[in-house]
Amino acid sequence: MDTLSHAVATRRTFAIISHPDAGKTTLTEKLLLFGGAVQLAGAVKARGDQRRARSDWLKVEQERGISVTASVMTFEHDGCTFNLLDTPGHEDFSEDTYRTLTAVDSAVMVIDAAKGIEARTRKLFEVCRMRDVPIITFINKMDREAREPFDLLDEIEKTLALDASPATWPIGSGRDFHGCYDLYQDRLILIDRNGDRRPTTEAVAGLGDPRIDARVPEALVAKMREEVELAQGLSPAFDLKSYREGHLTPVFFGSALRNFGVQELLEGLARLAPSPRPQPAEPRSVEPSENKVSGFVFKIQANMDPNHRDRVAFVRLCSGHFKRGMKLRHIRTERQIAINAPVLFMAGDRDVADEAYAGDIIGIPNHGLLRIGDSLTEGEQIRFLGVPSFAPELLRRVKLDDPMKVKHLRRALEQLAEEGASQVFRRRLGGDWVVGAVGPLQFDVLRSRLGAEYGLPIEFEGAPFELARWVDSDDKAALDRFVAANAPNIAEDHDGALVYLARNQWYLQRARDDWPMVRFLETREQHALQAAGG
């Protein structure tokens, strides 16, 4: 096997999805701990600043204790290179999560053992299903009061229409939680009752092995044997093909807080999760084993280093062997750019990347040239698909008290708009700024970041609009007439694309009826396709 093929075969690029408070950030920390990427996980015994989750590195995340931006962590374990993409837990940042899921090859779905499948989990699962992303399930918090395992498996199958195949089976729950039985490898995995050490494992010769009686409390042995036999008889056997096609999920039980089940999950990812998959593109899909380097931008992060006002483009490599200093073609502008200072990530930290392979995530520092959805290749005219920007659901007008800082505000808003978490529109008449977001928390985060990172205290006030749609037309004259007739409602986004701001749904429908030659688009990728004649 050549170097490129081996490197691709050992890559595992995955995201963790869950409802808020299911334990996603704690699991992320423990995966890094077990993978040897950090010596101390933030949720274990750290104090003060160390206690904050390593994946939550923005100031607002540390203050609120939530994830509001996707972060990337690369680590190696057991011969595999893992690229872990931590997604925002709050639903107001679903757009960032959606785009992150375009950059992964599999996902880990975290479920609270007491609450089961919650609304946010269901929505994120549907995004994964749209892209046929294989999912491994981790049922967390088994050391607390939990629902019956069979009920949880049944809910997965009925709610998500997904076959559930248990990989491990819990021995007790809550205060009686003693560990799991490994159905794949016939072994006991027992929790350390003091919580100070990693779990112990012991291979056994099936459920009848007397060593089980010696290691598991008598009150739990009979129930464990009965349930494991039922699970083996009633649940579908694990099928690798079905899992990788997105029809079946292997299910692991554990407690991330107690370090339990994390090692088995990591082993499962290494053994079961797919290596980098082909990526959809026009005019052809791209195979990871191709020699020529290609990739796409799925995220922009401003001010990772606040002292340097930097902007870093997160690029998913789709093919080839990337080397620092090589030149890539920026398809949107048809420019050649030299990638002289690429980085690999560990949340807010980064190291220079001398090389990377298909499946890896690299960061490219830039000053606004790279945008979300941009494609980079070694020359071939390929445009990767499926990285959209969505029309916002809430609109607010920006109120700046100091008129001397208008230019400063413009630069700040445009830089933050490049990240894609919020949309920024400048009205053609009046020149005032309207910010669009999916949820209200985005406005709080934007206000906080403008103050902390740019020294711009601002407020948001109500806007006379409820809806925003990108507009274009095959008939340029018709589009010009539409823009002239609706001048008070016309704005431009940070890329200069035309946007129609509607007072409400009725006015939007009226505009559609009156201007049938004009397209009113809900996603930016649609706009890019139409503008390119797609």
Task: Set down the secondary structure blueprint.
Elements: H1 3-9, E1 11-18, H2 24-34, H3 59-64, E2 71-77, E3 80-86, H4 94-101, E4 106-112, H5 119-130, E5 135-140, H6 149-160, E6 163-166, E7 168-171, E8 179-182, E9 187-190, E10 200-203, H7 210-215, H8 218-234, H9 240-244, E11 248-253, H10 262-272, E12 281-282, E13 294-302, E14 311-319, E15 321-323, E16 327-330, E17 335-338, E18 343-346, E19 349-352, E20 355-357, E21 361-366, E22 375-377, E23 383-384, E24 394-400, H11 406-417, E25 423-427, E26 433-437, H12 440-454, E27 458-462, E28 467-472, H13 476-485, E29 490-492, E30 498-502, H14 505-514, E31 519-521, H15 524-531
Parallel strand pairs: 1-3, 1-4, 4-5, 5-11, 6-11
Antiparallel strand pairs: 2-3, 7-8, 8-9, 9-10, 12-23, 13-14, 13-22, 14-21, 15-20, 16-17, 16-22, 18-19, 24-26, 24-27, 25-26, 25-29, 28-30, 28-31, 29-30
Q: Would you mind describing this structure in some detail?
A:
The chain is built from 15 helices and 31 strands. The strands form seven sheets. The protein has an eight-stranded antiparallel sheet, sandwiched between helices. It is an alpha+beta fold and 534 residues long.
Give a quick precis of the structure.
With 534 residues, the protein is α+β, with helices and mostly antiparallel strands. Helices cover 28% and strands 29% of the residues.
